[in-house]
Amino acid sequence: MITSILNQLFGSKNDRELKRLWPRVVEVASLEQHVETLGDADLRAKTDEFKRRLLQGEGLDDILHEVFAVGREMSKRVLGMRHFDVQILGGIVLHEGKISEMKTGEGKTLVATLPLYLDALAGRGAHLITVNDYLAKRDAQWMGVLYSALGLSLGVIQHEASFLFDASYEAPDPRLQSLRPVTRQEAYQADITYGTNNEYGFDYLRDNMVLSVSHRSQPSLNFAIVDEVDSILIDEARTPLIISGPTEESTDLYERLDKIIPHLNAEADYTIEEKTKTASLTDAGNAKAERLLGVDNLYDLAHISLVHHLVQALRAHTLYHRDTDYVVNDGEVTIVDEFTGRLMPGRRWSDGLHQAVEAKEKVKIANENQTLASVTFQNYFRMYDKLAGMTGTADTEAAEFAKIYNLDVVVAPTNQPNIRVDYPDLIYRTVQEKYSAIVEDIVDCAQRQQPVLVGTISIEKSEKISGMLKKQGVKHSVLNAKFHEKEAEIVAQAGRQGAVTIATNMAGRGTDILLGGNPEFLFKQMLSQFPDLSEADQDHRLKQIQDGCEKEKQEVAASGGLHIVGTERHESRRVDNQLRGRTGRQGDPGSSRFYLSLEDDLLRIFGSERISSIMEKLGMEEGIPIEHKMITRSIENAQKKVEAHHFDTRKQLLEYDDVMNKQREVIYERRRLILADHDLTEEIHASIEELVDGILAVHCDEEQYEEAWDIDGLADACQSQFAANIRGEGGDDASVFRDMGRDALREQIVEQMHQAYAQKRESIGTDVFRQIEKMIMLRVIDAQWKDHLLGMDHLKEGIGLRGYGQKDPLVEYKREGFDMFANMMTRIKSEVLEHLYRVQLAQGEPPPTLETERRAPVHLSRGESEPQAQTVRREGAKVGRNDLCPCGSGKKYKKCHGT
């Protein structure tokens, strides 16, 4: 109430921001007349002038108005598009490192060009992040003409490919026109780089697994604009990016447990919680499972993994549904993204859940993967010096953007007033009644030639409505989000007369739906059918298409514009707003209506008793909907509860990942220092002294008398760690060491180890030994970090139980995680020195280099296909992990060359 009164008196925070920014927009506009007089060459030369001025001490803010004016003018000349004032405003917001909320159809693709141009002038790189490869490629080909005219290079990062924009390049594949293939490094070295969130994140992880600095591709993270920022930083934030390698565990367990689930009864043997997608066994269920598995106690330490996998099998059968949460294609289980409805090939659920679903569907069960490297989008994008974002729907999540990413949201006004009509929800008793009403609405629109876009939340529901429309003889298109490029073409035509398009939520997001059709897409279709048309004929046909689209637009507008039908409310209000936002662009007419039933998941799981009581008071008859603003408000309140729950989940994920993030930064910084070409002798000496101190603390405690010192144990420990005999060839008596005192003893041992190390380096050769140092350090760090990640995963799994002991699980996780990390760092130093003191080159063996090191195949867990591993045939007998290493060191293989 107080906030409302203050807003009326002083304006909202957003109003005040717009008032602050508008004079800057006016300043850019005031320069337009001058830059219009410049020739093309003079306009292009402005880029070099701006770069010189930055080198002379001016800041980006000092040149912003001129840069934006030049960018706007060049866009007019080469693209035929002039930035509206509200687009200039959006560009300033992005440059300031904030989120610009701009409604669908306001031209966000063009908006991003100005802040990218400005920040790229500093020479430190500027990145645009999109949600899929198609949009990254499309926008780069579209805007590359502008950047090229301004004298800037543009790189494009795609899955397993990378390009530089080159207008003169004739690509063999017309879809890659003007995109010249280059290395990953070259694409990142461009002034501006376009790519997807997954590719940027995986490149960061891969860069921190390389064995040579020349293999790193990603430069410093300077400035990024995240397109569809809510989708990337909110919806996808709960699932981390993971690079993993296969384990050797058997898959038989999953099949064995899968056969048990049908024998368990709901409520009696287990309970499920749909809100959190969790399942648990009852006491009776435990007893039945023990009997079926033939074990005495499921919770015995020897069987603890059985409980975990049994619960995962329960979840697979009761909470994960085919054609809603996943599909089965060609004998593989493919996840369906819960927010976009898109298939996510290559992405797998973790902790054995994916294998449990595979066992349920009787398809081949893949081995579990062990994490080699991981990072959340939350922590990755917070590494950028400056982060900005744009979307049509951010305001509902403004609090989360501010708290997690320190990003303010500025809602930009539309260029034209929004005249879309959002009708109140219609609520039915049953799903079947709801579907009947939806089909009736669609048929009515089709008869009046009004285009309809039907948004569903799953492939299964898309196909259900499609089947009902076929029975009615209504021609329609169905998008199941398999092919982004084809999907964009269909969505682009969803505004044509009489078009009926059924799509999972946000399918084709990033593609404008133009009333009357998109002339650009129609022209491309025509060219694919008649590729040999002369240039004059092409111009003539294009004019015909444009005129036809304009005429059809007027007719569609007269019928009411594009009508949006929502088949149910999503858990997030933002996703509903995204669906509504597909219509009413740039002042076009349009309408939206959501259809609900009491059997919908949102109302059934999260709906309050208030909704039910309202229904009873108003009375519900079969086939008769209830349309009431009070119910719509109650549904929005239910959505707010779900949003708050998901926010807590993401916040908790971040709090736990922050612990790992600090550790990750230490390890990755250590790797970078090792890869850099500098002498590691000082660090080796420091490690030697630290390990000597540790050995002395165990065998020659300062608190003990010298007579109590364990000199034999001290000698054995030094022999094991450093391969050095501290007693010398004659075997000095223990009293000699006791008599010299602890400080002198320490100094003597340290000096002896330093000398032994220097001799080892000299015997092999300084340059070669430096390579060996780096190679061994990287091998040991990577192996220990991999095991540490597994240990931290196990710690996180069980840490929640500490709450029963009145302890804060997060505090306990931080404390134990720190202890585990400190122990790992000590193990790294110990193992590195064990190897370095014993290393020797066989006669005739070429010196090793980091360039020749090879990595095992890895698996990327988000939307990535697994690289095909080549079969490597071993010559001779296999060396067991506990056998003596064949190198002659006297150590077990697993502690030596089997690392």
Write out key terms for the chains shown.
899 residues; alpha/beta; nine-stranded mixed β-sheet; seven-stranded parallel β-sheet; 33 helices; 24 strands; 12% strand
Give the SSE map.
Layout: H1 2-10, H2 13-30, H3 32-36, H4 40-55, H5 60-78, H6 85-95, E1 99-101, H7 108-111, H8 113-120, E2 126-130, H9 133-149, E3 154-158, E4 161-165, E5 179-181, H10 184-189, E6 192-196, H11 197-207, E7 223-227, H12 229-235, E8 241-246, H13 252-258, E9 270-273, E10 278-281, H14 283-293, H15 304-318, E11 326-329, E12 332-336, E13 343-344, H16 353-360, E14 369-375, H17 377-381, E15 386-391, H18 398-405, E16 409-411, E17 421-422, E18 426-428, H19 431-447, E19 452-456, H20 459-472, E20 477-479, H21 484-492, E21 500-504, H22 519-529, H23 535-558, E22 562-566, H24 573-580, E23 590-597, H25 601-606, H26 609-618, H27 629-675, H28 681-699, H29 711-722, H30 734-740, H31 742-764, H32 766-799, H33 809-838, E24 859-860
Parallel strand pairs: 1-15, 1-16, 2-6, 2-7, 3-6, 7-15, 17-23, 18-23, 19-21, 19-22, 20-21, 22-23
Antiparallel strand pairs: 3-4, 4-5, 8-14, 8-24, 9-10, 11-12, 12-13
Helix pairs in contact: 2-5, 2-6, 4-5, 5-8, 6-8, 13-15, 15-16, 19-20, 22-23, 27-32, 27-33, 28-29, 28-31, 28-33, 31-32, 32-33
